[in-house]
Write a structure and sequence with these properties.
The protein is mainly alpha-helical and about 475 residues long. It is built from 17 helices and no strands.
Length: about 475
């Protein structure tokens, strides 16, 4: 028993946090800049007279440019190393935020989001650096830490945004400058702390491949070991991304939750992601393998979405229709420049005061947590499984393709979910997405074959994958 315990903690069995910590901190600081801006973008655009359609286009600009930039930066990092690509992209992020801070028109905001979207595609480079510094046994946990950075960023970022607004009298330009400051900190940390993870002798093997090629994406989809995983990555991001985009509108119409109530929900989502991706996923990966994580994640996401669609139409106990109407119409005295109520132009039906209780909020909270567990597990598990099915010199480029599918899903999710919500009702997008995910769960359970590290118990040394 003693020797078995020793083998379970042998080199390669545990994540080397000293090598991963700089990447985690850099990604977190970089994301803080992004997540500080996200809650303010609709109001910022509205202050320049943008209508809801233009605001939607502005929201899509960032993920669309990520879709284009992720394979480019991924291939460049395979050719020239991770550090120079990170530095150049972070410099672009700084420029984008500064441009936003000095913006004097809606078109300047569009340009800022386009620049930041191309620069923000560096997540594939950070994932490649994680892959460089992990083994087959620790890769899922390492990639999970990137997801944990997202969870922390989306929990802390909005708090920092509102603190900045409170300190500056609702000055949106100041928020952009604070975001630029965080991007500058990330640049400095990359320059002085991050150690290049791809040595020169391992670079350039993919040099003859185009940096961005839709043919390469199609070819990746046709690869038996990779295609299904990329489809799963795209669909799960569509489902979970759409869930996050429409959650506030759904809980407003179904549970009567205002902005403060929804802010609490998003903090809970971020906390679930941090706990799962920062801790539990490493244990589950070593014990059960990536295939189990993917199948379990799809089942949880499907169940959470279907349960969300079936949330009882009962407002929270503290709900006041009059107060919510005042908040949405701006009649409560808010004087934010150019403010547009988030539901302007939408047929939003608020609950009645006479039907309140704990069942609706309790049911919705449970469904949200289940869906969040599935969403937190899937991305790192799928990416880890992808890296095990490609040659080492293809890791950066393939993760770039994966990131492009994620960006495409992020761009399409609010459009598709919003159309379903508008035309078929509030439950339709969640129910349809849940049923689609359930179908993919069945396909994945039948089609994904375990890789050798996933075969738990194949040998004593491999038992703790």
């Amino acid at each position: 028993m003693k020797s078995a315990d020793t083998s379970s903690v042998a080199p390669g069995e545990r994540l080397d946090f000293k090598r991963i910590l700089p990447i985690f901190v850099i990604v977190l600081i970089d994301l803080l800049g992004l997540t500080i801006i996200i809650p303010l973008m609709p109001l910022y655009a509205a202050s320049y007279g943008a209508n809801p359609f233009v605001i939607g286009l502005l929201g899509a600009a960032y993920p669309v440019m990520q879709f284009i930039g992720a394979p480019l930066l991924g291939r460049l990092s395979d050719r020239y190393g991770r550090k120079p690509v990170l530095l150049v992209s972070q410099f672009g992020t700084i420029i984008g935020f500064l441009l936003m801070g000095f913006a004097g028109s809606i078109w300047a905001l569009f340009l800022a989001r386009i620049i930041d979207g191309l620069s923000g595609a560096n997540i594939s480079t950070a994932q490649a650096a994680i892959s460089d510094n992990t083994t087959d046994k620790t890769r899922t946990q390492g990639l999970g830490l990137v997801g944990a950075a997202f969870g922390l960023g989306f929990t802390i970022g909005p708090v920092l945004a509102f603190a900045t607004l409170a300190a500056t009298g609702n000055n949106y330009h100041a928020v952009a400058f604070v975001a630029a400051a965080f991007a500058a900190i990330a640049f400095g940390l990359t320059w002085f702390w991050f150690q290049e993870s791809l040595p020169p002798e391992k670079r350039g093997r993919a040099a003859r491949k185009p940096a961005l090629s839709f043919g390469a994406m199609a070819a990746a989809l046709r690869r038996p070991a990779i295609g299904l995983l990329l489809v799963l990555m795209f669909v799960q991001q569509m489902v979970f991304g759409g869930f996050e985009q429409l959650l506030s509108l759904f809980t407003l119409t179904r549970l009567g939750l205002d902005a403060r109530g929804n802010a609490v929900l998003f903090v809970i989502i971020g906390a679930v992601v941090v706990v799962i991706q920062g801790g539990m996923i490493g244990r589950w990966s070593r014990k059960y393998g990536d295939r189990w994580l993917i199948v379990m994640g799809l089942a949880a996401l499907a169940a959470g979405m279907i349960l969300m669609a079936l949330t009882p139409n009962q407002a929270a106990p503290w709900y006041s229709r009059e107060q919510v109407v005042l908040e949405l119409t701006g009649s409560n005295g808010r004087t934010l420049p150019g403010e547009t109520p988030p539901t302007q132009g939408l047929p939003v039906a608020l609950p009645d005061d006479g039907n309140t209780g704990w069942l609706g909020i309790g049911w919705g909270l449970a469904a949200m947590i289940i869906a969040s567990i599935g969403g937190a597990v899937l991305s790192p598990a799928i990416n880890s499984s992808i890296t095990r099915r490609v040659d080492p010199f293809e890791v950066g480029g393939t993760l770039g393709i994966s990131a492009s599918f994620v960006s495409a899903a992020n761009a399409l999710a609010p459009v598709v979910f919003g159309a379903l919500f508008n035309w078929l009702g509030s439950t339709a997008p969640f129910l349809i997405a849940g049923l689609l995910t359930a179908v993919l769960w069945w396909v994945a359970a039948r089609s994904i074959k375990p890789q050798p590290p996933d075969i738990v118990g194949a040998a004593p040394v491999m038992a703790s994958h």
